[in-house]
Sequence to fold (441 residues):
Amino acid sequence: MKISVVGTGYVGLVAGVCFAQMGNSVTCIDIDEKKIKDLKQGIIPIYEPGLEDMTLQNYKINTLFFTTDAKEAIENSSISFIAVGTPMGEDGSADLQYVLSVAKIIGQSMKNYMVVVDKSTVPVGTADKVRATIQEELDKRGADIKFDVVSNPEFLKEGAAVQDFLHPDRVVIGADSSKAMEIMRELYAPFMKNHDRFIGMDIKSAEMTKYAANSMLATKISFMNEMSQICERVGADINKVRNGIGSDARIGYSFIYPGCGYGGSCFPKDVQALAKTAKEFGYSPRILDAVEAVNYDQKYVMSDKVIARFGENLDGKTFAIWGLSFKPETDDMREASSITIINELTKKGAKILAYDPKARHEAESYYLKGNDKVSYVDSKYDALKGSDALVLVTEWKEFRSPDFEEMKKLLKNSIFFDGRNQFEKEKMNEYGFEYFQIGAN
Fold:
């Protein structure tokens, strides 16, 4: 099939590359000329395991192309994916200006029947707006060209996006046309050779599925973080509680690890967008509002612990930060807890020595740009040299089995704030650390 994908961010680039991997002819489109130039030279704008090699391989064999010329790429496509950003507006709603801008270009460019696929995370009712926008442009041209709009939400985990796409646990398609549904089934068939995980439904239900899924996962995280706060106050250990409830098959262990709050491009934005949609339709989403409120407070828990231990005035204090990205195996710092923690500590006068395997550039160039109290180092141990304490924020694998004796030598004080509860408190005390966790005294 000939496919165009508009947008080369996490969703668009991964989708385009994986479709090309299955033998389709895919053209990825972006208005950012530098990004397209870099992609043609093999420079990938995001870190995602396996993505670089697959991109280079498919570009080399001419199944994958990159361009800024949306018109030509769309003209030559039978399926066009909209995979541009839907940033959160000030009121919490999803901003659809980029999605509708692409729809307008599609309406101006298409020459034959086309399936237009909403791959971006969009509110319920967006497909109707995309359809109306395309039709308006066709009417202006006096063109009688048939098309279908389909909703195909993505369920990729950053850090495992390529594998998730190649081996999906489900492919959700919302369509009101049997023709479009069959085209999408054929497109995804190579990804489901062993098990049919294709789930067809109406468009609005598909749009809702994405928001419901992310909000459910965010709810589990905020629930456990709230439990961690209760545990600290009553003298229970949230780590033991997690083991106790996770063994129940109805609950399971996924997304019940306490920590310093969720971040990223999906959960914060999607929870707020779904809450905003509910309110627009006259319903007060009490659970969603609570999920967001708990997560907001949780991002301050580790900085509050540091301040409680060292005092309100942190002048002359230096803290090592392990991890900047919102989760391991990605360089994404959108809504990352590290931003809140670092800004709170530096506001009190502290200096920061930060280390992250992949997100340093993101921090320096954007998220912590201008914070002159933050310095970046090249290894986890370099961050400890002369620091008054360590704060672990992101649970990268290289932080799982550090040399504790070396840590004690490098740190000014053997004080460890663990924002992801990576270690057993008793064991850390045996090593001689003053050790602080979430949800355990």
Remarks:
- The chain is about 45% helix and 15% strand.
- Residues 48 and 159 are 6 Å apart (CA to CA).
